[in-house]
Amino acid sequence: MKLNVKAFALAAGILWGAAVFVITLSALWRGAGGHLSLLRGIYCGYQVSYLGSVIGLVYGFATGLLGGALFAWLYNRMVKEA
User: Fold this and answer.
1) Which of 47 and 10 is assigned the larger pLDDT?
2) How many other CB atoms sit within 10 Å of the CB of residue 82?
3) What is the largest CA-CA distance in the chain?
4) pTM value?
5) How far apart are CA 57 and CA 21, in angstroms?
């Protein structure tokens, strides 16, 4: 069974973007998040703040979209047709 690349990419983008957003807000509310500052090396402009959570949402969606599309494309290339 082959994957729908567009649907998988969209689902992965939404999931990863929402995860970065929620984890950033959770760390902000708890006063933690020192380890999340490592994302600044990957996501330009990201920081553990309310604005940073929105920036992380956008970057997370974009990277999840690309990663999901790449994964589904590779999966479809390697799966055997039944």
Assistant:
1) 10
2) 5
3) 52
4) 0.87
5) 5
**Cβ contact 17:60 at 8 Å:** yes
> For 9-15, what is the mean pLDDT?
98
Q: Which amino acid is at 46?
A: Y
In 3D space, the residue among 12, 20, 15 whose CA is nearest the CA of residue 70 turns out to be 12
> What distance in Å separates the CA atoms of residue 60 and residue 72, rounded to the nearest whole number?
18
Please report, as a single letter, which amino acid is at residue 9.
Answer: A
- Identify residue 47 by its one-letter amino acid code: Q
Q: 4-7 contacts: CB < 8 A, separation 24 or more?
A: 4/72, 5/69, 5/72, 5/73, 5/76, 6/69
Looking up tokens 């290339």 gives 77
- Are 63 and 8 in contact by the 8 Å Cβ rule? The answer is no
What pLDDT score was predicted for residue 82?
62
